[in-house]
Amino acid sequence: MISIDSTVMKTETLDLANLPASETALEIHNLNLHYGTKQALFDVSMKIPKKRVTAFIGPSGCGKSTLLRCINRMNDLVDNCNITGEIRLHEQNIYDKAVDVAALRRSVGMVFQRPNPFPKSIYENVVYGLRLQGINNRRELDEACERSLRGAAIWDEVKDRLHDNAFGLSGGQQQRLVIARAIAIEPEVLLLDEPTSALDPISTLTIEELITELKAKYTVVIVTHNMQQAARVSDQTAFMYMGELVEYADTNTIFTTPSQRKTEDYITGRYG
Ligand SMILES: Nc1ncnc2c1ncn2[C@@H]1O[C@H](COP(=O)(O)OP(=O)(O)OP(=O)(O)O)[C@@H](O)[C@H]1O
């Protein structure tokens, strides 16, 4: 079994199946997804609690990233991708025809595996989304820039070189800059798709500490290959296998007393 540091056991256990609406950020209902004829998600249902960290774990190809990408409709960009079921954010199905996808993606930000700053200054990277919204007031942008860089735990490292190109930062700094860019527009949900897999161990630790801080303000959903990382940063964990959600519970439960044999086999390293 994965050993869990007692310091991460910080939030009380939730009854995830009966989570009240006031504590639910997202509700996924009977979600099925096909890429062409290949089914990648099978009838996934779960409630993701507000202002906590939820991890999706499972072996390669089990559908973790696919499920994550459904939450801000990134799969809309994939040809032949067919989705049925619902994902409810504020009681509204994000797949309803009436939903403004650009607005959805402002509420549900995403950070990818490889840091992807734009070829611009640090400052312009952070305020990019605000400028897209038509905000050009210097004071407003300056304040948002500082607030976001502080929120992403990188302000002290970059405050004297805000107008330098973002490509001059290390990989770990670039990833925190990308997180600053994502939180500058004040989303509710942050989706992190293996955010540390391209980083060294020290940068990984810094990002993990940051993730723990982010949940004070945001609902965080993270896909990770790394079970120790899921154990360290998440409050609840969803174990997926071959497109199915096998088990979803508090992280402590998943890693110490899973109810499903498949979960136990995975976390004890029998496959994956
Ligand atoms: N754009 C796509 N077109 C067709 N099939 C896809 C596409 N994206 C993913 N798949 C397939 O869907 C299944 C789930 O993939 P997904 O990337 O969601 O898994 P994953 O659990 O995130 O894997 P990994 O841990 O390796 O990133 C896999 O069989 C994959 O090959």
TrEMBL record:
<dbReference type="GO" id="GO:0005524">
    <property type="term" value="F:ATP binding"/>
</dbReference>
<dbReference type="InterPro" id="IPR003593">
    <property type="entry name" value="AAA+_ATPase"/>
</dbReference>
<keyword id="KW-0592">Phosphate transport</keyword>
<keyword id="KW-0472">Membrane</keyword>
<dbReference type="InterPro" id="IPR003439">
    <property type="entry name" value="ABC_transporter-like_ATP-bd"/>
</dbReference>
<dbReference type="InterPro" id="IPR017871">
    <property type="entry name" value="ABC_transporter-like_CS"/>
</dbReference>
<keyword id="KW-0547">Nucleotide-binding</keyword>
<keyword id="KW-0067">ATP-binding</keyword>
<keyword id="KW-0997">Cell inner membrane</keyword>
<dbReference type="InterPro" id="IPR027417">
    <property type="entry name" value="P-loop_NTPase"/>
</dbReference>
<keyword id="KW-0813">Transport</keyword>
<keyword id="KW-1278">Translocase</keyword>
<dbReference type="InterPro" id="IPR005670">
    <property type="entry name" value="PstB-like"/>
</dbReference>
<protein>
    <submittedName>
        <fullName>Phosphate ABC transporter ATP-binding protein</fullName>
    </submittedName>
</protein>
<dbReference type="Pfam" id="PF00005">
    <property type="entry name" value="ABC_tran"/>
</dbReference>
<feature type="domain" description="ABC transporter">
    <location>
        <begin position="26"/>
        <end position="267"/>
    </location>
</feature>
<keyword id="KW-1003">Cell membrane</keyword>
